[in-house]
Amino acid sequence: MPLPPRATKHLAALVDDLLDPFFAVDEHWRFTLVNRHAAVSLGASPDELLGRVLWDVFREARGTPLAETYHHVMLTREVSELEVHDLVRGVWVEVRAFPHDAGVGVHFRDVTDRKLAAQRRERLLDVSRALASATTERDVVTTALDVALPACDAYAGLVLLLEGQGTDRQLGPHFARGYDEQDVRAWAPYALETRTPVTDTARTGEAVFVRTRDLPDWPVLARDKSERTRAVAALPLVAGDEVYGVLALSFDHDRTFNGAERDFLRSVSAQFAVAFDRVRLAERTRRQADVAAFLAEASELLGGSLDVHDVTERLTRLAVPRLADWCGVYLPDGEIVEVAAVAHTDPVKERELRGLVSQVPMRLDDQGGAPEIIRTGRTNYLPVVTDEMLSALKRDPRQVEWVLTLGMRSALGVPLRANGRVLGAIQLVQAESGRHFSDEDVTVAQDLAHRAALAISNARLYRASQVWAVDLEQQVRDRTADLERAAEELRSRTRALEAFSTLTQNLTSDDEPLALVHAAQEALLSLLPQSAVTYYELDRDRWRLRSLAGQVRHEELERTLREGIAQGQVPNLDVPYGTKAPLYQARYEPGEWDDGTDLTRHVQATAALPVLVEGDVTGVLVVGSFEHHEWPDTHRAVLETGVRQLGLALHRARALRDLRARNAALVELNEELDAFTSTISHDLRAPLRHAGAFAELLRREAGDEGRPGLFARQVVDATQRMTRMVEGLLGYARASRASFIRTEVPLAELVEAVRYDLTPELEGREVRWIVGDLPVVPGDRAALRSVMANLLSNAVKYTREQDIATIEVGATIEDGEATVFVRDDGAGFDPARVEALFSTFSRLHDDARFEGVGLGLAAVRRVVARHGGRVWAESTPGKGATFSLTLPLAGDHD
Fold first, then answer.
1. Which of 229, 674, 860, 882 is within CB 3.0–4.6 Å of 823 for a Cys-Cys bond?
2. What is the pLDDT of residues 149-161, one digit of tens each?
3. How far is CA 712 from CA 26, 690, 840, 848, in A?
């Protein structure tokens, strides 16, 4: 049913706003609707097309799948779709025909991007499938270029790989497809700083796309490209985060390189990089296994020889042809660098090479080559060598010309280093094979050089050992003679040690000074029997002979020595006395006293040694030898050790004499103390009792009033104080002299017993006792009870001013001893005067406030000391005091 005119007009406006071509025909194939896009494609305006027959306007469509689709929809009234390729415009169009009124409506949509994307995906799959089956680098490159070039619509492609290390890295062509062979041979590696699309990509890792209009911006590219090239794409080959090469594609027509094309090309290069990296890893693994086997073989072969020349020959045969086309080993000899071995894949060139190196000597200070490697110890790696580089060498012209003839293309020089030293250098060269050294080759060459250097070092050591062996017999003979001389010296040393042992025993068994001196003289005389050993002491200003061992062999000489010689005339005595150091004379030099006489003519050598006691010289001991004597170190050591032991023994004897004197004085003092104690006990205590009793009677008769009563009370108080002092002295004497009966003493029982004894003094007071766990200690029970009685009675006395007093008794055990403390919160004392507490008759408080005589704590310290302990006190005035003592838990003291 036809639409009303107004609706038809509105529909035409809507159709005209469509972005895609659209038209409609009636059942007679006449145009009823045509938007401007459809009119443009049909070459007319919409008004010109309305009412005309489709087949008259679009004659070329007759008989095509497009016409069949239109007729099918007209007859079946069913929607139909198809895709057609517009050869004129070079686009793909999706056509959708559907029933419209009585005729057909047709909608066109450009699907070129989708179609190309699908084609690219399919081509990318083709590339992936082709690369998946590749197993070598060449397979990958060949497959990639064969498949990728048509997929990318490129006519040629090139794979370039990074070579070298550091600042010497280059981008070299390795595989090409589609280029003229002559152009490929002319291409040389590019230095990375050269500005080209491929080097920019290698540096940055980003793809570079060059259209026809951009070619003049790349001068090097414009110079090196093929005449056929109109556009270029440089795509990075990346493994992980590292660019290792570039895929370059050349196009013989201009390319827009829109986003989709760039993504496709990047995807192709990524697929290529993954496959290339995969086979490179597999090849690297295989090469590593080959290298390991090669190095193992090298170690076995090089280690099997102990001749330097043979090792270097084996090294060159190992390197050629497995690592290089030719190889040389260079070893320094002074300032000259010698060629130790040479090998070449071509025997003829090897002979020529040997002749050349023999004609052109090298010096260690030459620039470049093996001399520089030996001097610096650094590897010299040239992945690519050009004729220009060789011509620029500052070498002998014959050498340069011959190297050019060899056709060197890559060079590698490695130092022969072992045990931190450079022993030489190995030079490896690639030439006829056309190969180039890689970073992996550098590692292998360095490893091989290290193994070769160790073999050379071992060979040199072996050669040196042969030389040493020749000298060894003579050295053994010489050493045997030395040992025979040393044997006699050893026997002498043995006699000296035996004498020293005897001397030490003698010096510890006597304490009489001259007896000790004579024992030392006899021991030393056994070491030097052809001698006399004399000992002198300074008597005022004369040296007198005090002891003699052996015979001086001259009666007048002995008489003179016993009478004494003036100080200052005997250097043999004066010098050791003044310097406190020994004086050895291998040839005796007379002094003023015997110069020009026959007294000492028979004395050949002397050794004079000062005898030191506590740093002072007490005498000089002289050994006079009647035969020539050089005083070797062994004899000097025995003499000085013996005299030093004599000094110690004399010091010990002096100490023993002093000790005996002090002991005698102590015995006398103790006897006096016993007498004094007896006097106090019997002669003082009775009068004191009588005086006290009569004073008390007088006080009672005088009463408490008046001056007589006051005087009587003062006498009573004084006699009571004197009685306490006498009792204190007797207690202190008993603490110092009473014999101890040692038993296991439970301190807890002692504390309880003392507390019971103190009960009368606590009447009317409130005292809080804190008694902790107390140990059982070894000691005298009565003496330790007196200690606890003194400490606890003091605590009770000095807390009497407290309303509620606290007294604490406790103990700790650590490091084999018990620490016992008595703590109170009483009056305390001035800590600055703590030492006075334990002195006899020393008191820190006024008698009017706290009575006492100052002997209790002195007795405590004495008893504790006799038990092997110590006592101390701590206090804060007004806040109490703590008295502590230690008692060993084992051992016998007193």
1. 882
2. 777 788 998 888 8
3. 165, 14, 29, 18
